[in-house]
Write the structure tokens for this entry.
Amino acid sequence: MSRDQILANLRTSLASNRSWLEKEASAAPHAAPPFVHPPAANLVAQFSAELAKLEGRTYPVADAEEALEVIGRLLDEREARQVIAWDLEQIDLSGLPALLAARGVSVLDARVHGAARKERLQTLEPVSVCLSGVDCAIAESGTLVLRHGPGRPRLASLLAPTHIAVAHRSQLVRGLGEALAFLRERYGAALFDPTSHLTFISGPSRTADIEMTLSLGIHGPPEVHVVVL
Amino acid sequence: MSTHSLHFFDRVDTALHDETLRTALNRATARFVGNRSGAIGALSDADTLRDQARAIRAHALSRLDELLVRLAERVEARGGRVCWASDGEEARRYIAELARSRGVRSIVKSKSMASEEIHLNEALERAGVEVVETDLGEYIIQIAGETPSHIIAPAIHKTREQISALFEQHLGMPPTTEVPPMIRAARQALRQRFLRADMGISGVNFGIADEGAVVIVENEGNARLTTSVPRIHVAIMGIERIVERLEDLGVMLQVLARSATGQKLSVYTSIISGPARPGEADGPEEFHLVLLDNGRSQILGGQYAEALMCIRCGACLNACPVYQSIGGHAYGGVYSGPIGAILTPLLQPDLPDNYLLPYASSLCGACQEVCPVRIAIPDLLLRLRADAVRAGKFHPIEKPAIQSYAAMMNNPALYRVGGKFARLGTRLLRRKGRIRRLPPPLHLWTRGRDFPALPAQTFSEWWEERERQRHNG
Ligand code: SF4
């Protein structure tokens, strides 16, 4: 069987090179640094500056009311009637269901599986806005961390041309190392039990494949808006 | 145009005479080099981070057997399936059979070097399945019928006019020289391919043994769509591309994105562990992980094991003066540039002029300088050259040439006479101080490079004269 053959080859190979590799492995510590840039005092400002470099926008707001105002405006500007979203109670912004209801915006059923998969995808395709929360956000790289799972469709940050994410100041961490440590602390070994999918999003979809010209939105959302309260 | 049937020297010639390619290469590599050094330079402690990256990769390789078993067991425990493929044939057969048994008619693919290594697309197309590359650059070269010229920017050799013509022909887009309409046309066309696809095939940047997960980084979102939308996700991973823990990403992703494109992190990093769980809203119902050996388990035991630390960032390509001049196609294999000159002879030993690739280097060391895992690339290239010579692979002219060189260097009188002739000869041949073509057999050397005319006076003559003057004066 190929498995056994491959493993046997590996073991033979390691018999000659393992000690060299182990020496190389012990030449430096493995633990990731919590962050890799000089830390900023104001994480919201740092996050927002980093996201701006990536052509994404941050809206620091004082309270839920102001957050709802921003989201309402973004929805109106895009004349959104339908959104692909996380279950609203997972987004952690009181008043969000009422805001959507008042505007007549419906949250589409984003359950995509089984025989209805392709049909459901075609229904979701014309939608202009995705709406999600985050698990945490990384200040030094302008990154959103989204753990998907029940009530948190991965398509709700991917399919539509605009992605609006709601984050809380308490969810900001300094660097990637800190974000990974946070996920571990919060979910332990069960990180991937209820979900198969974790995504880090740093700004809008981009490509430079045509003559090295930067273009946004080739596949994922060309617009990323993050409301931080 | 495919240049793969040509001999290495002819491929180099073709590349060197392609003005469009050279301009694009210069522009792209200069940009990548600048972005990388900016991003690495901005780090608080880049040197430590690179040492850590190397240590983490070395650790994973030192327990590769154990980690692969752990990865496979955990993928299976989450409802995924694992195929251990000794070679390309086994991987192709598994995927083609999977497509057949599931009634798959169309496949979307995100970038995967491993799948190119095993020529997967051709095999699937032969089996009657439609395969669409969805990374924009890969898509462009797919419809142009070509192969990638750069690990990170596969279509840099194409001008916007050429791309517009391709889109006009394949997507019915009106001709344009503007990039945004081209992006919109590609987004629209490819989006429908995603929504209709039955299977998505992706590569893997890192497997994580402890989590039974794979990590895929990208900027466009095509890999997210490939792994989220279709009913079946197949991930192909070279067996060496593994780390032990999720936390290792805190080092690896930092150096990968910065070395590749100068980004702090790629736009999207997806960490995927098996198929969608019950209760999840979306995601694939089936997940298959193909673990591709294809010679790697043997390489691990030899003097080139270090090459397996590579994380395919492409930094060594951009830094290489040879790559900057000839581009990726000339290397003839899937992997190009300095690391390609090592990997191709090892992974695709059947390519006939492979042994020449390690000579496509001036051994300047720029590759090792930028490598995020500090692979001693020039050293490995030298060893491959020595291997080739030992195996009797060299041009018939080289042996007598080196022998006469050795004889000359060992005999001062002969050296002086030889030097006189060489100087006289080069001065007769020179145009504006340079020689474009040396007479046979030395013309082999001037294919693609100029030879400087030798100065009228040799160093030893100059030295003798200087000493004479000193003593007299
Ligand atoms: S050899 Fe080093 S620099 Fe080159 S692609 Fe691999 S990791 Fe990057």
